[in-house]
C-alpha cells in the first residue's frame, strides 16, 4: 500500500493535482475492466505447463485465470492455444486481441482489430486501434475515415476528434486541424484537452502566438486541471518550452513559477528550470503526429486514473506507447499501476526505461527506490535513495521516499535522523505543503517512545495544515490512548471523520477511542461502520469483536475474532485473538466503564510513508492544488491491535504490517474480455475534503 501511494504521488500527477485543485476525474470509457500488462509471465500455478493443456475449455479457462492475474503474456499464449481448437470463435478472438494490447504487443493486436472491425462488442476499441495503426503507418487519410465518430458518448467523441486532428496535422493540414478543434463543442471538461492539444499543435506548426494563448488558457483553468492534472502539468512544461525556444527566458521561468503555485518543488519543473537558466536546448513535448496522438491517449488515461480504473488506464497507456514508446510519463504511470498490482519486478523494469535526459527521470528514480523495497530488496533500495539525497540534498521528496522505506523496516532511529535532516534543510519557516515532514518525524519519535519530541512535530504539522485528517486522527488518537487531553483528542478524531467520512481507518480510530473511554455502545456503532468501509482488515475486526464483547454480544464477538484469524494477521495479533477466543475479555472493574481511566499505552501504530507522485503518474500524473504533494509515506494511521486486557484493552506499540502511505489500494479489477457499454460523461470537478490523498496506517 505504501508503494501504491508513493507511485501515484510521484508519477501520477492526477492525485497530486487533484489534491490541489480538488475535483473528480473522467469515467472509464473504452473498457471498464481491462487488466494491466504484466511481463514476464509467471506460471499461474507452480509446475503449470501450457503444453499440458489439451482441450479448448482448459485453454480458455486457464487464459481467463491468467487475465485475472494480469499475466497477459500467459493469457495470450493460452488464448492462442484455444484458438487453434476453434479458429473462428468470436469471444476467444476478442479476448486475445485485448490481451495482446495489454501485453504491449500492439502490431499483433492491431491485426485482430482489423479482423474484428464489424464486431460491435469491441467496436470502440477496434476503431481506436485501427486509427492509431493508420497514423503510425502515416496513412493519415485512412485514419481520418476510421476515426470518424457520430455516436452519443462524449468521451469517445473527444478522443476521436483529437486523434483525427493529429492525423490531419500529420498530413500537413495543421491549420485545418486547429480550426476543427476550435469548432468542437462539448461539455466544459473538453476545454483542457482542446487547449492543450491545440497549443502543442500550434507550436509544432510554428504559430507561437496561438500556442501561447491556448497553453495559457490551460494554466488558468483550475477546474480543468482537476479533471486532467497530468495534462495541466504537461501544459506548464509545454508553455515553458515554447518561451525558452523563443528566447523568452523570463516568460519561461514565469510559466514554471505558475506551475509551482500548484505543485511546489515538482522535480520535472526543477529540472526544466535549470535547463532554461543555463540556456540549454529543450526538446518539445510533442513535435509529430505520432507524439500528438500518443499524448491524447496519455492525457485521457491520466484523467481516468483513479481507484478501480487502473486496468482501463493501462490500456490507454499501452496504446499511447505504441506511438511513443519512450514516453517517460507513460512509463512512470504504468510502473505505478504495476506496483498497485504487486508486480514489483515489472514496475522496476518500467522505471528503469525512463530516458536519462527526461525531466521525469528523478521521479522515476524515487519510484524505483520504493519499488525495490517493495520487492524485498531493502538494502538496495536504501542505497539507491540515499544516493538520490546525496545528488540533491535540497529535494525534500527524496527524504520522504527514504523515510518511507525506513518506516517499513521499523528503523525508527534512522527515520528520525532522516527527517531531522529534512527539517534542517527546510529551515525555520516551513511552507504549508511541508507538513508531511513533520508528521512523519513525529511518528518516528513516537515509535521511539520519545513523546516529548513527537508531540511538537505533530502540532507543527497541524499548524501547517489544520484540516489534514491523517494528522488530526493520529494526534487525537494518541492523546486519547495516553489518557491526555481527552476531549480535545476526541474532537480531533471526530473532525478527521468529518473530513474523510469514508475512510475506514479513521472511522476505526473514532470507534476505538470510544472503546478506550468506556463508551462501548458508541464504539460498536462506529466500528460496525468501519468494518463496512474497510472489509477484510484484521485490526478493525478485532476492535469490533472487543466492542461486541463489552456490550454483551459475545457470540458476535467470537465471530469477529475468528474472522481476524482468517485474515492471517501478524503473529502478535494471532496470539492475542486466540487467547480471547479461549478466555474472552477480562471483566470490567467495579467502577463504571465511563469512569474507568484507561492505562497509558503507546500511540497508534505508525503509518507507512510514501513519496510525493506518484504521481503519482500514468500516463503522467495529474496536478494538484497549490498544496505540495503529499508526503511519500503519509497515511491514515489506524488504531493499533488490541491485546486482552482489562477494560479498555491495551494497544501494543507494534504497527500493522501493511501500513500504507497513500490512498488505500483499489480493489482488483475484473478482467475484461469485451468492451463495456459507453460510460456517461464526467461530472464537473468538485473540491476535495482535504489536500491529500487518503491513506491508511
Automatic annotation (TrEMBL):
The record ties this protein, via InterPro entries, to: TPR-like_helical_dom_sf, TPR_rpt, Ycf3/AcsC/BcsC/TPR_MFPF
Q: Which region ranges are annotated with the description Disordered?
A: 588-697
State where composition is biased (Pro residues): 615-632, 643-669, 677-687
Alphabetized UniProt keyword annotations: Repeat, TPR repeat
List residue spans for each TPR repeat. Answer: 435-468, 504-537
Q: Which Gene3D superfamilies match?
A: Tetratricopeptide repeat domain
Its name, as the record gives it, is Tetratricopeptide (TPR) repeat protein
- Here the segments flagged for biased composition (Low complexity) are 589-598, 633-642
Amino acid at each position: 500500500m505504501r508503494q501504491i501511494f508513493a507511485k501515484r504521488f510521484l508519477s501520477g500527477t492526477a492525485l497530486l493535482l487533484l489534491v490541489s485543485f480538488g475535483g473528480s476525474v473522467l469515467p472509464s470509457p473504452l473498457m471498464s475492466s481491462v487488466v494491466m500488462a504484466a511481463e514476464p509471465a509467471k506460471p499461474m500455478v507452480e509446475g503449470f505447463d501450457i503444453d499440458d493443456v489439451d482441450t479448448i475449455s482448459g485453454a480458455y479457462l486457464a487464459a481467463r485465470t491468467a487475465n485475472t492475474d494480469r499475466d497477459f503474456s500467459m493469457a495470450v499464449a493460452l488464448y492462442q492455444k484455444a484458438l487453434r481448437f476453434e479458429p473462428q470463435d468470436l469471444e476467444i478472438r476478442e479476448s486475445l486481441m485485448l490481451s495482446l494490447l495489454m501485453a504491449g504487443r500492439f502490431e499483433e493486436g492491431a491485426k485482430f482489430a482489423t479482423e474484428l472491425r464489424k464486431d460491435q462488442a469491441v467496436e470502440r476499441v477496434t476503431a481506436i486501434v485501427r486509427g492509431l495503426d493508420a497514423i503510425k503507418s502515416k496513412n493519415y487519410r485512412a485514419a481520418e475515415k476510421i476515426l470518424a465518430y457520430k455516436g452519443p458518448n462524449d468521451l469517445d467523441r473527444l478522443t476521436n476528434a483529437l486523434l483525427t486532428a493529429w492525423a490531419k496535422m500529420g498530413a500537413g493540414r495543421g491549420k485545418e486541424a486547429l480550426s476543427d478543434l476550435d469548432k468542437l463543442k462539448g461539455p466544459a471538461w473538453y476545454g483542457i484537452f482542446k487547449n492543450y492539444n491545440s497549443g502543442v499543435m500550434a507550436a509544432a506548426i510554428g504559430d507561437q502566438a496561438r500556442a501561447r494563448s491556448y497553453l495559457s488558457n490551460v494554466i488558468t483553468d483550475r477546474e480543468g486541471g482537476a479533471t486532467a492534472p497530468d495534462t495541466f502539468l504537461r501544459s506548464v512544461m509545454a508553455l515553458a518550452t515554447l518561451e525558452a525556444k523563443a528566447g523568452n527566458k523570463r516568460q519561461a521561468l514565469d510559466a514554471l513559477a505558475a506551475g509551482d503555485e500548484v505543485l511546489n518543488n515538482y522535480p520535472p519543473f526543477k529540472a526544466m528550470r535549470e535547463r532554461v537558466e543555463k540556456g540549454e536546448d529543450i526538446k518539445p513535448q510533442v513535435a509529430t503526429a505520432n507524439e500528438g496522438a500518443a499524448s491524447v491517449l496519455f492525457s485521457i488515461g491520466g484523467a481516468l486514473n483513479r481507484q478501480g480504473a487502473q486496468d482501463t488506464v493501462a490500456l490507454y497507456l499501452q496504446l499511447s506507447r505504441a506511438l511513443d514508446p519512450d514516453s517517460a510519463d507513460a512509463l512512470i504511470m504504468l510502473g505505478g499501476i504495476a506496483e498497485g498490482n504487486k508486480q514489483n519486478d515489472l514496475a522496476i523494469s518500467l522505471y528503469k526505461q525512463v530516458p536519462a535526459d527526461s525531466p521525469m527521470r528523478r521521479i522515476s528514480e524515487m519510484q524505483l527506490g520504493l519499488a525495490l523495497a517493495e520487492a524485498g530488496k531493502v538494502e538496495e533500495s536504501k542505497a539507491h535513495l540515499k544516493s538520490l539525497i546525496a545528488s540533491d540534498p535540497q529535494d525534500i521528496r527524496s527524504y520522504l521516499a527514504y523515510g518511507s522505506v525506513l518506516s517499513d523496516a521499523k528503523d525508527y532511529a534512522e527515520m528520525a535522523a532522516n527527517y531531522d535532516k529534512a527539517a534542517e534543510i527546510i529551515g525555520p519557516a516551513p511552507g504549508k505543503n511541508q507538513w508531511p515532514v513533520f508528521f512523519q518525524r513525529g511518528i518516528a519519535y513516537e515509535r521511539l517512545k520519545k513523546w516529548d519530541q513527537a508531540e511538537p512535530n505533530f502540532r507543527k504539522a497541524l499548524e501547517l495544515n489544520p484540516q489534514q485528517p491523517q494528522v488530526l486522527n493520529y494526534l487525537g488518537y494518541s492523546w486519547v490512548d495516553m489518557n491526555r487531553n481527552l476531549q480535545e483528542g476526541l474532537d480531533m478524531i471526530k473532525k478527521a471523520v468529518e473530513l474523510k467520512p469514508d475512510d475506514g481507518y479513521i472511522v476505526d480510530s473514532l470507534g476505538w477511542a470510544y472503546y478506550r473511554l468506556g463508551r462501548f455502545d458508541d464504539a460498536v456503532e462506529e466500528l460496525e461502520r468501519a468494518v463496512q468501509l474497510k472489509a477484510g482488515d484484521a485490526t478493525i475486526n478485532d476492535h469490533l469483536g472487543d466492542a461486541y464483547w463489552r456490550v454483551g454480544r459475545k457470540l458476535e464477538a467470537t465471530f469477529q475474532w475468528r474472522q481476524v484469524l482468517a485474515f492471517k494477521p501478524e503473529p502478535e495479533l494471532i496470539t492475542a485473538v486466540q487467547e480471547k477466543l479461549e478466555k474472552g475479555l477480562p471483566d470490567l472493574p467495579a467502577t463504571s466503564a465511563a469512569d474507568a481511566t484507561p492505562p497509558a499505552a503507546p500511540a497508534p501504530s505508525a503509518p507507512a510513508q510514501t513519496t510525493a507522485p506518484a504521481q503519482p503518474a500514468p500516463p503522467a500524473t495529474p496536478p494538484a492544488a497549490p498544496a505540495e504533494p503529499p508526503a511519500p509515506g503519509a497515511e491514515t494511521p489506524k488504531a493499533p491491535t488490541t491485546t486482552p486486557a482489562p477494560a479498555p484493552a491495551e494497544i501494543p506499540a507494534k504497527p500493522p504490517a501493511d501500513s500504507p502511505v497513500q490512498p488505500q489500494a483499489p480493489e482488483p479489477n475484473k478482467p475484461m474480455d469485451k468492451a463495456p457499454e459507453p460510460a456517461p460523461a464526467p461530472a464537473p470537478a468538485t473540491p476535495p475534503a482535504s489536500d491529500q490523498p487518503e491513506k491508511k496506517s
